Amino acid sequence: MRFPILKEQLDIITANTVEIISINELEQKLAESIKTDKPLKIKLGADPSRPDLHLGHSVVLRKLREFQDLGHDAILIIGDFTAMIGDPSGKSKTRPQLSAEDARQNGLSYFEQASKILDPEKTTICYNADWLGAMKFADVIRLSSHYTVARMLERDDFERRYRSNEPISIHEFLYPLAQGMDSVHLKNDVELGGTDQKFNLLVGRDLQREYGIKPQVCITMPLLVGTAGEEKMSKSLGNAVCFNDLPSDMYGKLLSIPDALIATYCKLLVPGENGNSKLILEQIEQSPREAKRALAKEIVSQYYSAGQAAEAEMHFDQIFVHKKAPDNIELFEFEKDSLPLVDLLVTLGAATSKSEARRMIQQKAVLVNEVKIEDMNTIVTIDDEPKIIKAGKRKFFKIATKKSF
Q1: In angstroms, rounded to a whole number, what is the distance separating the alpha carbons of residues 23 and 9?
Q2: Which of 17, 149, 300, 371 is the most buried (most CB within 10 A)?
């Protein structure tokens, strides 16, 4: 196959990156790839500790897709073995360890969702339990001999915890070593990751050198700030836009981002060759509101379709601009003629628990037929005439008694 010229590849690969270690080695690898007509092996490690991907994950996935489009081989590593250790990157405490079964199941979901960005036909998916699980204790001892405690403590989160007298378990040191062994096993040319993965990527580079393999180039990508505009995007922080969000929810969440994030979201989440990217960026100064609407519509169309994105926009306008309930609310039928509102919210799935339902009522976030409810002990009468329950900003439910025929 024929690859694009070196400069064209470098322009695409270096765009939006934070750091490349090292750019000279990347140029050499690309030049050799063009000369030998052999694709580079690009590795991305996926942590399956959570099965839901969000737009923060898409930043590095898009970079991997760019390598695919340039003709290189994409390798997605599902860390089902390393997930059983628990990566503390960016955390003050160790993440919970997963069972092998849960990690493998989450990994399958990860690949399915990642395929919304990657070309699944051109993506090699691997599970690192296949080689790490085969290592014997003697192999682990030999692996550990290649790294010192002092070098491990160079990692920011380890150093902070050590200085704060917070415990660091020995098995945590094994995580970057295990991830590094993925690079030794695959002999990949490049590894991608967020800036919070820099240490782990460098360990892989070091271990390849220790095992006589030409070291990988490490490319770090920026961490996407969540919708609240403060911390990085994370589902646990409630500031994430997930791949599997409904189009209307995805659109609404994107409209909630601060104006200062529009340009960043556009640059990181909209492909550069997409003509809409330039239009959105040009629109920011004239009308941030319209730029944000265009951005939200563009991103929803990437994960669904242009038609569904347009429907999501209409849905949003109907509820938040025209203050009307949506037309297609699901009907829930009950045999009872009344229910406590707290119980009803849990039954409908508007709240996960009675305590959450009470919080929603306390925060004045629940309406019955457009009447705001503030009494925790409210009993909702259910009859043949449907009632509309609104919970929070975007959840609507229609309730009525079950008709007997």
Answers
A1: 12
A2: 300
The one-letter code for the residue type at 174 is L
Residue 241 to residue 234: CA distance in whole angstroms: 9
**Cis peptide, bond prior to residue 22, ω within 30 of zero:** yes
Q: Are 41 and 187 in contact (CB under 8 A)?
A: yes
**3-state SS, one letter per residue, for 153-180:** CCCHHHHHHHHCCCCCCHHHHHHHHHHH
> How far are the Cα atoms of 180, 247, 311, 312 from residue 307, in angstroms, in the given order?
44, 10, 6, 9
The domain that contains 23 carries what CATH number?
A: 3.40.50.620
Residue 238 included in any domain: no
First-last CA distance in the chain: 67
Q: How many CB atoms lie within 10 A of CB 219?
A: 25
Per-residue pLDDT, 309: 92
Q: Which domain holds residue 388?
A: 331-401
| pLDDT tens sequence across 13-38 | 999 999 999 999 999 999 999 999 99
Locus of tokens 């955390």: 91
| Predicted TM-score (pTM) of this structure | 0.78
Residue with tokens 């062994």: 181
Structure tokens at 184: 């030794």
Distance CA 103, CA 226 (A): 25
Question: Which tokens belong to 373?
Answer: 């409810």
Report yes or no: 191 and 219 within 8 Å, Cβ to Cβ.
Answer: yes
Looking at this protein, which amino acid is placed at residue 390?
Answer: K
Q: For 263-273, how does the pLDDT look when each residue is reduced to its tens digit (9 = 90+)?
A: 999 999 998 76
Which of 271, 301, 321 is the last residue before a domain boundary?
A: 321
